[in-house]
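Subgroup meeting minutes
Present: P.N., E.W., G.H.
Scribe: E.W.

1. P.N. recapped why we're keeping a running log of single-chain structure predictions: easier to compare across weeks, and new members can see raw inputs and outputs side by side.
2. G.H. added today's entry (317 aa).
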Amino acid sequence: MDVVPGSEQTLPFIVQAPLAGDAWQASRAQILQAVEAELPRAGGILFRGFAFKGEADFEEFARSFGHELLTYDYASTPRTKLNNRVYTSTEYPAHQVIPLHNEQSYSLNWPMKIWFHCVQPSQVGGETPIADSRLVYQQLDPAIRQRFAEKRLMYVRNYGNGLDLPWQQAFSTEDRSQVERFCRASNIEFQWKDDGELSTRQVCQAVAQHPVTGDWVWFNQAHLFHISNLAAPVRETLISIVGEQGVPRNVFYGDGSPIELEALEHIREVLQRCQVSFPWQAGDVLMLDNMLVAHGRSTFQGSRKVVVAMAEPASAS
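Output recorded in log:
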C-alpha cells in the first residue's frame, strides 16, 4: 500500500492500493495506521484503487474504524437511505452547487467522521470540493471571526409546504411527540403552526475547538442557511409568497440581530480561496475529519452516484 502526500497540497492525503483492484481488507492494518497518523494532520484522506463491492462493503469499511455508524437525524437536505446506515449524498439537482460546509454544523451535535464513496463519477464535473476549516478560521477577518464567535448563530427553519423538507423527513418520524422530545433534548425551540407544519430555531456555535488536536475551526453554516445564499429572483419570489418570516431557512446572530451581508460575502470569498478540488474516480473513498475539513459539491452532467456514511457523535461543549 502506498501513501502519497499531495505534491502541492497536503489535502487530501492519498492512500493508494498496492495493486489496482485489491480488496481493502488485505490492507486493513496499514489503512488504520495511515488514518491514525495522517487524518489529524491533513484532515482528509483519499483511498484510491481499492475494490469495493457495493454499499455493504463500503459500510464495512466505514465501520472498521471502530465506531457505530450514525443515522441522518435532524436533516437539512434530502437523502435516500441505502444499506443500513449508508445514504445517498444530498439529492439536489445537478445544476446546483452545494457550498462548502461541515456536516450538521448547524446544530449542537454532529459526526466527527464522514466518508464519501464514489460508485459512479459523472461525465462532467461532480467533484466533492473540500477545504481545511483551520485555514478558513485563520484567513477570516479577525473582527468578523470574533463577532461571530461571541454572538453565535440562530438558525431558523420552517419545514414543509413544498418549499423544504417535511418535518417527518427531517426528523425521521411521523410522531409529533418524538419530534418534541428531540427538540427539548437538543435545545431547539419549536412551534407547531395552524397548518400542522413545524417551525424551529436553535442557537449554535460559529467556531469550535477540535477535541483531539486542539485546533480552532470555522464551524457553522451561516453562509449556506442565510437567505442571501439564494439567487435574487428566487429569494424575491419566495418572500413574496411566504414573507420574510416564513422562508424555509434563515440564520441570524444568536441574539436575533441580522448578519451583515458584507460579512457573509467575506466568508464565502475565504471559503472559495481555501477550496481544494479533485476529479472522482470510480471506487474512490474520501474520509474526512468533519471538524477539520468542510465539503461541498460541484455541478455535474450525466449520471453520478456518491454515497455517504457518518460516525463518532460529538457535541458542543
